[in-house]
Write a structure and sequence with these properties.
- This protein is an all-alpha fold and about 350 residues long.
- It contains 16 helices and no strands.
- It has one domain.
- Helix 12 packs across helix 16.
- The longest helix is centred in the first third of the chain and has 38 residues.
- The radius of gyration is 20 Å and the shape is globular.
């Protein structure tokens, strides 16, 4: 049985909270500045737990079970709900939708791209096909790197060179495609595989922050420093969107702000440790929050009139503060949904079915 790392779980909890907070805000200044604090951080944290499998097929089976099946299940359920309630939600929230018909939306789901408004039934799900492609790219990179068995520096240079090659390809494809997209966000995955590889590279050193040599004061100061630096870099970089491959003034600034956010979360997570079990529990169950946060968020936006009114100006500090409580409520609802999934259909949430006792 694998031992959970509380620092990593807490960091994931902070990142998923920012995701939900951004979805409650929907747009505006804070929404766009939150992007480096969420999506690339998840790609990076996935590198911390990556373990290269000798067999590609066992690796593929695991990723299909933990990423593809939950994506397809949540997609189909979302499309069915959207076919009944999509027009009502669109009218209430003032958002345009392409279609509520089931068959076209299933086609969009299989194509796996959230660009051009084709995943309005559950925009959050774009991340999963993109993550799947990122994991495939990481496997290929690590398989190539494993050939260089002796020199650690050469392996590092090779990793970074392959990541930069992928990034250059991704940025070039995005420039050529314009508003178009490739299946399963291939172009986005090419740009973001560097985050997962960075996570894989720095994991041994960063996880040492839990060492007894690091005092709470040192961790607190590091958290504050990285968080302030992350916000400053994100602010200077300007508006970004991971789903549509908009990286602000510079991808370098986008990358640096994401790395700083990830380090800030990790230091904060180390400070908390196991002292607040609720945060760790959220971090251990980010998948159901990703799958279902759209629905409690929309419910809160449409039913709770006071929040809807405040959130009509999402770039204001008042909107940011008002979005905190709905975000927490949405996360709790998603965790309950995830628990039900785990009991009834564990395979739809990436878990293996419990073996019947003999």
């Amino acid at each position: 049985m694998t031992t959970r790392n509380s620092t990593l779980d807490n960091a994931k909890a902070f990142a998923i909270f920012v995701v939900v907070l951004a979805h409650v805000l929907r747009n505006g200044r804070y929404f766009t500045y939150f992007v480096p604090a969420a999506v690339p951080v998840f790609f990076m944290l996935s590198g911390f737990t990556y373990r290269h499998a000798a067999s590609f097929f066992s690796f593929l089976e695991k990723k299909i079970r933990t990423i593809v099946i939950p994506y397809l299940f949540a997609g189909i359920i979302s499309i069915l709900i959207f076919s009944f309630l999509g027009k009502f939600a669109s009218k209430t929230l003032g958002e345009d939708i392409s279609t509520t018909n089931i068959l076209p939306n299933i086609g969009y789901m299989l194509y796996g791209s959230g660009k051009n408004g084709h995943m309005k039934w559950n925009n959050s799900l774009w991340f999963l096909p993109c993550l799947f492609v990122v994991m495939l790219l990481v496997y290929v990179i690590e398989a190539i790197v494993s050939i260089v068995k002796q020199n650690r520096f050469h392996r590092l240079v090779l990793r970074l060179s392959l990541c930069l090659f992928c990034l250059a390809m991704g940025l070039y494809i995005n420039k050529k495609l314009g508003s178009a997209s490739l299946p399963w966000h291939i172009e986005t995955a090419l740009c973001n595989v560097i985050f997962t590889e960075i996570g894989l590279i720095i994991a041994p050193r960063v996880m040492a922050i839990d060492s007894a040599n690091n005092s709470k004061l040192k961790k607190c100061l590091c958290f504050i420093a990285f968080f302030i630096l992350a916000i400053a870099l994100s602010y200077y970089n300007g508006e970004t969107s991971a789903r549509t491959d908009e990286y602000g003034r510079s991808f370098v600034l986008y990358l640096l702000s994401a790395v700083c956010f990830a380090l800030a979360y990790l230091y904060a997570g180390s400070l908390i440790g196991n002292s607040i079990s609720a945060i760790g529990y959220v971090g251990m169950n980010t998948l159901p929050i990703l799958l279902w946060n759209k629905y409690p968020v929309i419910l809160l936006q449409t039913v709770m009139g006071k929040f809807t009114k405040v959130l009509s100006e999402p770039s204001t500090p008042a909107a940011l503060i008002a979005a905190v409580v709905p975000s927490i409520i949405a996360i709790i609802i998603c965790l309950i949904a995830g628990k039900i999934q785990q009991v009834i259909l564990p395979v739809t949430i990436g878990r293996k079915p419990l073996q019947a006792s003999k």
